[in-house]
Amino acid sequence: MRVLFIEVDTEASWAVASIGPAFIAAYLRQHGHEVLFLRATLDMPEADVVARVRASAPDLLGLSLTTRQWLRARSIVAAISRELEIPVVAGGLHPTFAADDVLACEGFDYVCLGEGEQPILDLVRALEARGPVAGIDNIQTRPGARPNLRKPFEPIDALPFMARDLLDERWGVVHMATQRGCPFPCTYCAARMYDELYEGNGDYGRRRSFENVFAELEQIRAAGELNYVIFLDDTFTIHHPWVKGFCRLYGERFKIPFSLHARVETVSPDLVAVLAKAGCRHIVYGVESGSERVRREIMERPVTNARFRDVFRWTREAGIVVTANYMLGLPGERPEDVEATLALHEEIRPDDFGYFVFYPYPGTHLFHVCKERGYLPEDYLERPAHHRSSILRLPDLTGDEIARYYDRFTEARERMILARAKHELTAEQREEVARDVQRIAATG
Length: 444
Description:
Blueprint: E1 2-8, H1 19-30, E2 34-40, H2 46-56, E3 60-64, H3 67-83, E4 88-91, H4 93-97, H5 99-103, E5 110-112, H6 117-128, E6 139-140, E7 173-176, E8 179-180, H7 190-197, E9 206-207, H8 210-223, E10 228-231, H9 240-253, E11 258-262, H10 269-278, E12 280-288, H11 292-298, H12 305-317, E13 321-328, H13 335-348, E14 352-357, H14 365-372, H15 399-419, H16 427-443
Parallel strand pairs: 1-2, 1-3, 3-4, 4-5, 7-10, 10-11, 11-12, 12-13, 13-14
Antiparallel strand pairs: 5-6, 8-9
Helix pairs in contact: 1-6, 2-3, 9-10, 15-16
């Protein structure tokens, strides 16, 4: 059977495509099926997407979607369904936690809840045999018809390596996932919801062995360029014995620079030094808020500002570039809390930073909070899920206040870039910096 996965770009062309289809494609190919890939870039009209789908002649369309991709994906699938009779299955974060809403829309036939390798293979086999689809674990066929969930895939080392032709990687920069699941209870993050989705049905948190990860890297290196590795795990630094063992062997066998995501609660001076010695060049930490009250009461992240100051210092002293991510506009947040975030930013002095207006993703704890308290507009699924403005009706922060704070983060980025200029910039160069910063801020 021929399966076509469509990657939907929104607002900006992403550096890497969704990794879910890359895992599923490898699994389907392992079982004798053909898998194709189409990237719907920003400059591609829907008519061109339809034409390319028609030319590929697939038996099944698949899309892995976040909430940010939802509106454009919905429109593209509707356009395809009007021209072609091809079944469509959607998976990923948004369909998993908003399955009924997805299946109520034109063109969507199936939703895959949670992990997709085995369910999609079962779906492909059922469609190929013209047999019944209802009753396949993890596959929902209509609103309200919640399927059973199978246990998470075990052992995870038995999964084939990602089909890299579906990732759209370039210049020898590759993306790796060493684990699935996250043990932390953050209320704003869907990773927690995957653990809850599988609660009572097996442990969703699993990590690959060193040798399995190294075998994939060796395969990539043998096939072409391998210049930089980006580890996509939500928190790479979970379980220090694994991390230290991995770093020791990685440093001996690869010596290829890499970056990762970490939490300040999970690192120490010793671990940061181990990471640096192995080749870590960049760590992204989620700071989220400079208000300890917000982190403790709203985010369920009871960590102190002193810890952030220490960890950012340790990371810089180890020679690792450090990035901070911030959020604003959360339910229950007040102006003084955002001021605290700006103040902490000035103290920890990251090499770079991202800043995002909170969006209540379906399935997260804070999504339910917003819905229960009346903060969420009825038409929230019709509104773009970007990170530059708020869709919420918050009692303590107005939309205008959030917009002004967003502008202040943008101004802080411009100051940071100008301060690092190695020489005096001309007026024209300073204007160019300002334009670039505004352009990035506008993409959300």
